[in-house]
Amino acid sequence: FAGLSLYFEDGHDDLDDFGFDDYGSECDGIRITAFLDAGQDNLTPLGRLEKYAFSENVFNRQIVARGLLDVLREFSDNENDFISVMETVARMSEDGEPTVRAELMEQVPNIAMFLHESQPNFPAAFSRYLVPIVVRYLTDPNNQVRKTSQAALLVLLEQGLICKGDMETKVCPVLLDLTEPSSDDDYKIEAVAIMCKLVTMLSKDTVEHLLLLRFCELCSDARLFQVRKVCAANFGEFCSIVGQDATEKLLMSKFFDLCSDSLWGIRKACAECFMIVSNSTSPGVRRTKLSPLFISLISDQSRWVRQAAFQSLGRFISTFANPSSTGLYFKEDGTLLEVPRCPFDRLGLGEIKGALWLALCCRDSPLSIESSMLQERNNNPPTNNEETEQTDENFNSFHYWRPPLPDISEELEMLKDQVPLQNQAAGIKEGEKEEMVVLEDGEIEAKEEMTMNLCLCLSFRMCLPAQVQVLSAALKAAQQERESEDTEGQSESQPPEDGNGEPDEEFSQNGGTAEEEQTPNEPPQQTTDSAPIEELKETENVIPQQLLDQYLSMTDPARAQTVDTEIAKHCAFSLPGVALTLGQQNWHCLKDTYETLATDVQWKVRRTLAFSIHELAVILGDQLTAADLVPIFNGFLKDLDEVRIGVLKHLYDFLKLLHAEKRREYLYQLQEFMVTDNSRNWRFRYELAEQLILIIELYSHYDVYDYLRQIALTLCSDKVSEVRWISYKLVVEILQKMYACGAHDLGLNFINELIVRFCHCPKWVGRQAFAFICQAIVEEDCMPMDQFAQHLLPSLLSLSSDPVANVRVLVAKALRQSVMEKAYFKEPGSAYSDELEETVMALQADKDRDVRFFASQDPNMALMDTAALI
């Protein structure tokens, strides 16, 4: 554009023969703002900008639009000039040529970021000049301009450059106008799409007050199926933003309509977002309404809908997981986290009941407990009502499983009058107490229930919300255990129950009514297959049986033929979530399915299981892992490399879950990872070295020396440099293990082996590796410095005269940046200080420039990566 600038200065405005295609990619390397340079027109830079910004030639205006960011940079120092430029931009936005408007809009995000970083008055300037352009272009008649404006708007929102006020007063009103029933079809479809993309970047209040009702109307748009399809695809985002209350009151009916839409593409979109919608509802709605709705999708007449439903089935089942009983839950990104538990979790059910009775019937009466709670509330006054309301709005039933407990002030007042009766009941013998339960029509039982409810309410104030749910589950289970024991005394023929109360608790929390909760406690009829019936009830209380049956059928070959050829892979992918939901006690429901998947003929299915077996081990615990997962894990170790890499990447995570005896058995098999189907698969060996660095802590120093040492030394001689360099770090970790455990003899043996194998290696890469290992040993403090000076330093110094410059470079770096910085070698009269100084001086005079550089540079400088010298 230097030539173009001269062309401009000669007074030529007719550039009709020039175009963007004539310059191609060369435009990127030429200063676009060259037209601002002084010429023969005697105009100021601002005058020249004005001239070309409103030139009759379209190409001139395009060049100005493309170079606006550079123009602003040149005029940003002067506020008046800056305002003039911004006003020029505002006038240019009204250009009648669509290509000019599109060029201008492409620069808006870059201009906004520049203003944000450099202009103190950015909010005012951006809101006054740029936001109106973006909003106006949303209704531009040219399709390219509209698309560019929509993309720019999303970028501005992602960067947080548009304030809430502008969104509510400028952007959202335009979107609402464009989505009116009378709006043009093309504009309406585009506006719906951009509105759905914006919702995840807006606040909950903005979405609820401005967009929610319009979104509900759009979900029922009978004329444009494209609108309904966009709404269905983004339905989950709306639900997650507005929360449970608005989802169930306003959105749920619309979701049912979309799931039964006449177009299969809309029903498919609903199936794909089912998990997010489920997470935004209460357990009761999830069980009684969403579950039957999902069954209808999974049996849809369209294969594509069924395919999407089966892919979402495992994720939907995982939303039934109860953290209070499993102790674990999956985040939306798939991370497995543990729910914090309160100290009561460590007690048995009987111990919990005893602890609660002891707390109320001895010294600490309810009055004293209440007074202490009041004192605590006085010391820590509650927040205002607005903050409380905000907390309730952010409440997530998926994490905490039940709504906050109600106010118990009235119950406390009632309990004050019952203190003498409770103290009297505390002195009743156990046998007499059981008799009184029968003779007094459950009076003592009612008091005990009220006491437990009180303890639960008091604990709610003392524990974190997540902890309270666990305590609540334990208390209800304790009460149900006592009721079942009383029932057993009345009928000797009744089959024994589990006694843990978990099925009742889970059923209750998943939406069962009070009458339904009592159903499992009723004496069942005597049948020969009573145990399977109990198992069925147990799983039914966790998730609807129909969902579980459909999930278990995903391994059926017929499903692959009629639904999806990769349905087994989707089953394997979601299995940890399903296992988490069912819990350890129901693992038997999934065991056969897991074994079937583990032997699937498709290696992708086995690979999926291999990558998640460590997560499943966390869910099942050590006993089930040893019994059911270890055999499958052993099979994966002998599988294809594509499967083995899954267990290798999480080898440490799995082994640390095993008992020491079982874990030690794998020491003999680690060597097998050195053999791969393809010797060029160097990343496999690299991953092995990384895992061994972690695994070192799981074994004794004797095992590390006997088994891991040889693997490490072999990897250090790998043909691929990346594998060698990570293996050098493994060698350092092994040496650190020896000295940390006090096994100095083993450490010295290992050092001698390193000297023989690397320092005296005929290949220069081995000698270079020795220098790197010595530097890492010093930096990591793997061993006492006197031991290093005695056993390793002489060999390191001997390499300072190595014939290969790359070796001398690492020697210089090790000495200058690491060894000489240790206090041990700086002490006056050190036996090695003179020798070190002489060696470094010799390296500073080396014939190789890189050697001189590293021998002379400041130790804190790291101007060159060591790996680049290989």
UniProtKB/TrEMBL annotation:
**Source species:** Oncorhynchus mykiss (Rainbow trout)
Query: Which stretches are HEAT repeats?
Result: 290-328, 792-815
- Show where the Phosphatase 2A Regulatory Subunit A helical domain sits: 89-318
Q: Name one GO molecular function term.
A: protein phosphatase regulator activity
Q: Which UniProt keywords apply?
A: Repeat
- Ranges for the Putative WW-binding domain? 393-441
| Location of the region described as Disordered in the Swiss-Prot/TrEMBL record | 479-529
One term under GO cellular component? cytoplasm
Q: PANTHER family of this UniProt entry? A: SERINE/THREONINE-PROTEIN PHOSPHATASE PP2A 65 KDA REGULATORY SUBUNIT, WW-BINDING DOMAIN-CONTAINING PROTEIN-RELATED
Cross-referenced PROSITE patterns: HEAT_REPEAT
Name of the featured protein: WW-binding domain-containing protein
At the top level, the lineage of the source is Eukaryota
A Pfam family the protein falls into: VPS15-like_hel
- Family annotation (InterPro entries): 2AA_helical (IPR055231), ARM-like (IPR011989), ARM-type_fold (IPR016024), HEAT_type_2 (IPR021133), PP2A_Regulatory_Subunit_A (IPR051023), WRNPLPNID (IPR033461)
Keyword Repeat belongs to the record: yes
